[in-house]
Amino acid sequence: MFAQNLIDYGRKPNVIRDLSAYAGARKAEIGPENVFDFSIGSPNVPPPPEVHAAMLDLLQHADPVAIHSYTPAPGLMSLRQTIAASINRRFGQHVEPSGIYVTAGASGAIAMALKGLTQAGDEVIVFTPHYMEYLIYTEAYGAKPVIVKTLPDTFQIDLPAFEAALTEKTRVVILNSPNNPSGVIYTRETIRGLTDAMQAAEAKFGHPIFLLSDEPYRELAYDGVEVPYLMDFYDDTLVCYSYSKTLSIPGERMGYLAVCRRCAAYEDVVDVCSGAARALGHICTSNLYQRVIERCVDVVADVDYYKRNRDVLVKGLEDLGFTCVHPDGAFYLFMKSPWPDSMEFCNKAKEFELMLVPGHDFGVPEYLRVSYCVDHDTILRSLPAFAKLAAACGVSKA
C-alpha cells in the first residue's frame, strides 16, 4: 500500500537527533550545567554582525513587497550572479550564474543533484566516514551506494580501493572535505589521485562520472591548512555549499548547487538538476535571506572560537589516554572507542552525562564523534567527566 523504503526511512532512528533530545531531557532534570552535550553539529557562535545589519537594513529600507515576494525557482538572479562572481574571484573559476541553483542548504543541493544525475541501477561511491544521509538520498532514487573505506588512522582516501570500486555503473562520487564526522581535510595529493582515477574511468567507460563536492565546512579550516577547490582538479564537478556553518545560520537553510562550466553536457546537467528540483517539490529559500546572503557572500563567522575549543578538547582527551584523529577542519573530533563497539562506549558515557555519537551510522563503528561547537565553558567542565569515563573504561595515558 505504501512504499516500504520510505516507511523504513521514517522509522529509522536518527541517533544524533535522539541523543540531542535525550540531552535536553537530562538538562531539564538535573540542570544544563551538569550535562555535556556533544551530539549535534549546530553552530554556537553568533552570526557575524554583517548578517543582522543586512537584515535590519532590508527590513527598514527595502520595498516590503519585493523582499517577501516569490523568487525564480533557481533563486534571485542578483544572488546567483554574486555567488558566481565570488567563486570566480576566490578560486579562479569561470562559473556562470546559469550554473548556480539556490537550495535549502547543502543537503538540498545533494538531494537535487543525485535525483538528477542518477537512474535506477547506477552506483554512487561514498567514502567512510560519511554523512549518514548520503545513503538515503542515493537509495531513494534507485541508485546503489558503494562504500569505500578510507585509510585507517588518517582517513585519507585509499586510492587503490577507490580505483577498484569504479565500474561501468559508477555515476557519482561524493566527497566531503572538511569531513563530517572526522574533521579531516583531503590533501591535494589525495584529490589529484582521486580525480586522475575518475578521468581514466570516464575514458574507459565512455560516460561522465560526476564529482559531488559537499562543502558545508569549507570555511572552517585551521592553522592555514588548505581546502582544495575540486573544480581546479576535475571538470565534471558540482559543488554543494551551505552557509549554515559559514555564517552561523543553520536554521535559515541557505545554500547552493554550483555546476562547473567545463562540465560535460553543461546545459543538460543544469537542466536535469533544475528538473530534479521541480520533481522533488523544491521550494526556493527565503527571498529576504537570499538578499542577506547577497550582501554577506564573503563574510565568515568566528572560526577562531572553534579552533580554541578544538585545541583544549584534543589536548584534554589525549592527556587522559584517548586516541583522536587530529581535525584540521569542521567542528568535530573523531575519537577511537576504547571498546570494540562505540555504541556500548557511548552508552557508558551517558552515565557521566557525556553525549557522544557512536560511529555506526558514519560507517566506522570503532570510532565516535564529539561535536565541539559548544560554549568553551562546556569543554572545560566536561574534562572531569571524561576523566571519570576514562577511569571506568580502563583508559590511561601510555
From TrEMBL:
Keyword set, alphabetical order: Aminotransferase, Transferase
CC cofactor: pyridoxal 5'-phosphate
InterPro entries in the record: Aminotransferase_I/II_large, NHTrfase_class1_PyrdxlP-BS, PyrdxlP-dep_Trfase, PyrdxlP-dep_Trfase_major
Top-level taxon of origin: Bacteria
Molecular function, one GO term: pyridoxal phosphate binding
UniProt keyword annotation of Transferase present: yes
Keyword presence, Transport: no
Residue intervals of the Aminotransferase class I/classII large domain: 34-379
One Pfam family cited in the UniProt record for this chain: Aminotran_1_2
Signal peptide: none
EC number assigned by the record: 2.6.1.-
Sequence similarity: Belongs to the class-I pyridoxal-phosphate-dependent aminotransferase family.
Name of the protein this chain belongs to: Aminotransferase
Organism for this UniProt entry: Candidatus Avoscillospira stercorigallinarum
